[in-house]
């Protein structure tokens, strides 16, 4: 938008009228905000652009200072986030608890085998139920197109982490990786620090709910009895369980066709256990945990068993 005015008043007694004139309207629901030159790790200096789902683009918006640019980035990102959260709440009314959406948003996926002129590709990510989906464009606002997305991995059989400074692959700062159940590493970048924090919390919640869903299929051992594990890096893994009565350690060795999936599943249980000990997580997600667990005792791993 820009501020324009009418012609100067012809009478000295009249005041100069000011009004806003719309130059371009950009719907912000599922819009993509970019502080970087498209496809690269180069950050624009005090500038950004907004791309709407319908193709309308703001063009490059240049700000006077870095502080002004950051203020605008945070304000626009916050508006997009609020609209997305509101839409997710409406969509989740149509899904059972174990199939609800806990995250939706844009991220740039790192092209590991890319040519030099395109290092990143925009992807719309969604965490729904036990799966991470990625789209080239957001699904419809009613959520009916969620199944058309490419399933990247299952949350209970994958591992996600935010990249520290010494782990970054290039000049982009707010990055995270996802290791799939097949052992493939996916790298993503978001624009702002709080977007990275939002992703971390969402993946933690998705992992927590997936662990709630997992049932015992091998032995009558609780996860709390697992005291250690080791693997050969190929297909075999050894579990050390503590007998509840004798307190002795019992070893169980198994061979799996997909070792990564099993290791990530174990990691998911540990992540859920840590989440249980976090009072902030327990307080902010208490309602969701109660709905997923279907119980009121508040203890996760004391009730669940190893897959």
Please describe what this structure looks like.
The structure is a single chain. With 307 residues, the protein is an alpha+beta fold. It is 26% helix and 26% strand. A seven-stranded antiparallel sheet has the order 9-8-7-6-12-11-10. Helix 2 packs across helix 3.
Task: Please supply descriptive tags for the structure shown above.
disordered C terminus, alpha+beta, three-stranded antiparallel sheet, 307 residues, seven-stranded antiparallel sheet
Summed up, the helix count is 5
The number of strands is 15
Taking the alpha carbons of the first and last residues, their distance comes to 56 Å
Could you tell me the strand content as a percent range?
Answer: 25-35%
Largest sheet: 7 strands, antiparallel
Poorly predicted tracts of residues: 1-7, 289-307
SS content category: alpha+beta
Radius of gyration: 24 Å
Shape: elongated
Mean pLDDT: 77
Give the spatial strand order of the biggest sheet: 9-8-7-6-12-11-10
Helix content: 25-40%
H-E order: EEEEEHEEEEEEEHEEEHHH
